[in-house]
């Protein structure tokens, strides 16, 4: 959120293109990693113990997750720049941030539940879904790259 405050003033077209290119490359890397995981048969479902404070655990894992940080320094920064390009007001950025956090909470809760249930009940289908979602990452990665390289 704080990265977006006043960011657009300092970003030239060449910097925006570079962000788009790096963000697209990051998305393609995430897609490759996801495809590899979906093709791996070693990711068999397991029952895990529930931790005492899942919110604290989730916050800690997010804050220390290098992929989360890499995402926001590449593709996320590009998205912030796009929001600011269409509206330079702080209110729009704040609204987008609040909506993003709320939707993340809902979406990630749903995904976590579906992933747990799906991987336990239909592990093959879960791997197919992971592969299909990796293709979505490829699409957006190519879109970002195309925007950055043209």
In short:
It is built from seven helices and no strands. With 150 residues, the chain is mainly alpha-helical.
Uncertain stretches? none
Termini distance? 28 Å
- Tally the beta strands: 0
* Range of helix content: over 70%
Strand % is: under 5%
Mean pLDDT: 80
Rg value: 18 Å
Number of separate helices: 7
Helix-strand category: mainly alpha
Shape: globular
Largest sheet: none
* Element pattern in H and E: HHHHHHH
Number of domains: 1
Protein name: Lysine transporter LysE
Subcellular location: Cell membrane
GO cellular component, one term: plasma membrane
Membrane topology: Multi-pass membrane protein
Describe, in plain words, how this protein is organized in 3D.
InterPro entries: LeuE-type (IPR001123). Keywords: Cell membrane, Membrane, Transmembrane, Transmembrane helix. It holds the Pfam family LysE. It is found in: Cell membrane. It comes from Thermofilum pendens. This protein is mainly alpha-helical. It has one domain. Helix content is 81%, strand content 0%. The protein has 7 helices and no strands. Helix 2 packs across helix 5. The protein starts with 6 loop residues before the first helix and ends with a helix. The model has no long low-confidence stretch (mean pLDDT 80).
Which terms would index this structure?
transmembrane helix, single chain, membrane, transmembrane, cell membrane, mainly alpha, 150 residues, LeuE-type, globular
Question: How are the SSEs ordered, and which strands pair?
Answer:
Blueprint: H1 7-10, H2 13-39, H3 54-64, H4 66-73, H5 75-86, H6 90-121, H7 123-149
Protein name: Lysine transporter LysE
Membrane topology: Multi-pass membrane protein
InterPro entries: LeuE-type
């Amino acid at each position: 959120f704080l990265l977006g405050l006043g960011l657009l003033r300092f970003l030239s077209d060449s910097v925006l293109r570079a962000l788009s290119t790096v963000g697209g490359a990051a998305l393609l890397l995430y897609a490759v990693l996801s495809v590899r995981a979906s093709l791996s048969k070693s990711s068999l479902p397991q029952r895990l113990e529930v931790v005492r404070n899942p919110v604290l655990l989730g916050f800690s894992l997010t804050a220390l997750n290098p992929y989360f940080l890499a995402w926001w320094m590449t593709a996320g920064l590009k998205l912030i720049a796009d929001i600011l390009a269409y509206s330079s007001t702080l209110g729009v950025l704040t609204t987008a941030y609040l909506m993003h956090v709320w939707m993340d909470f809902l979406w990630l809760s749903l995904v976590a539940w579906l992933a747990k249930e799906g991987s336990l009940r239909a592990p093959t289908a879960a791997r197919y879904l992971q592969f299909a979602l990796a293709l979505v990452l490829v699409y957006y990665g190519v879109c970002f790259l195309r925007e950055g390289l043209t």
